[in-house]
Amino acid sequence: MIHSQFGKKFSSSSSISLLMKDLNEGLRTPDVIMLGDGNPAHIPEMDQYFQQLLIDMAKSGQLNEALCNYDGPQGKDAMLQGLANTLNEQIGWNISAKNIALTNGSQSAFFYLFNILAGRCEQGIKRKVLFPLTPEYVGYTDTGLDDDIFVANKPQIDILPSGQFKYRINFGSLKITDDIGVICVSRPTNPTGNVITDEEMMQLDTLAKQHAIPLLIDSAYGIPFPGIIFNQATPIWNENIILSMSLSKLGLPGCRCGIIIANETIISAISNMNGIISLSPGSIGPALMQAILKRNDLLKLSQTVIKPFYQQRVTETIKIIRRYIPESRCLIHKPEGAIFLWLWFKNLPIDSQTLYSRLKKRGVLMVPGDYFFPGLNQYWPHAHQCMRMNYILPLEKIEQGIAILANEIEIAYQ
Ligand SMILES: Cc1ncc(COP(=O)(O)O)c(C=O)c1O
């Protein structure tokens, strides 16, 4: 029944869709300690803010207006204009509404972009997406219409004090061959919480320009919003950069609203794809965003509510981990942003898949690290020694999960 190559590729169960099913089942099972998913935390102040906003919008008729009308294929005009104004005024960029397109979640934007910029091209060339720093976001893995469109570069690992480490881009081994169509990074990185430094970003920007290929920056957790970055980082954009953002980690994943800022050629391509695939992106997220922008609250909420919430939560979570698991057993990637901790069990006698299964049996879900190496086509032991956990649950729950993790680690060493 499913005839086409497209149909076969996208209807078969990929390893990630099986894992997502697992995690989703875990999410719906009340006793499971879910440290595996990427849902943002329910920050009480944000929940209240959104509730009041919806009430106000319902009263003023804005909600009805959004629900009962299609937007254009590029997204809600007034929101595009409002966002361009805010970014120009508050960050000093020089963009217009023509530089912004909306999609139904940034995930679908990556599907569009990777397949616009990589895959089989004219004259038999097959272009690829380069991840200059791996581990990278698992959600990129199966997005290519063609197979094998990703290549990845292993990082340099800096060992830091206090049982921490940090990945850095290994520019010495980074090869930008003629078949690379785009360079892509998530900043902060899901799964590691790494924030690629300003210097690294500048180097990538220069390399991308030299090779006449775009630099795609996935800022789902980053700057300018929702601003979940705990150290210094500068937001960058220019005509060669494609910046992806989202309303999800602001606390609105159900809106499915992704935001792409790019040159007009890319924006026009996304707008056309929106038209073909979904007529127009959904209107509710953009309507909410328009109202938030009008109140001048977007960057304020990011900096004064969202960032401090996650920063405090990660500090507390690390304290809990260290009460149960010594540095000799587990190194932690320096938490610089996003909503995850990346744990490295360097000498553990079992691999991360086995640890995942054992934890699952005991009602704790974390994600085994080996999923987060899209494009790395060689065996690398390090990839099988790490786990990703979120820190969105209440601290008591996190502590219960960590206690079980610590116990399973000790069992593995026996
Ligand atoms: C790094 C990164 N990029 C993109 C996405 C996609 O998010 P959304 O489609 O909700 O905008 C996610 C979701 O977790 C993510 O972690």
TrEMBL record:
InterPro entries: Aminotransferase_I/II_large, Class-I_PLP-dep_aminotransf, PyrdxlP-dep_Trfase, PyrdxlP-dep_Trfase_major
Aminotransferase class I/classII large domain sequence ranges: 177-391
EC number: 2.6.1.66
CDD domains, per database record: AAT_like
GO molecular function, one term: valine-pyruvate transaminase activity
Residue intervals passing through the bilayer: none
Any Pfam family the entry gives: Aminotran_1_2
Record keywords: Aminotransferase, Pyridoxal phosphate, Transferase
Requisite cofactors: pyridoxal 5'-phosphate
Superkingdom: Bacteria
Protein name stated in the entry: Valine--pyruvate transaminase
Organism: Arsenophonus nasoniae
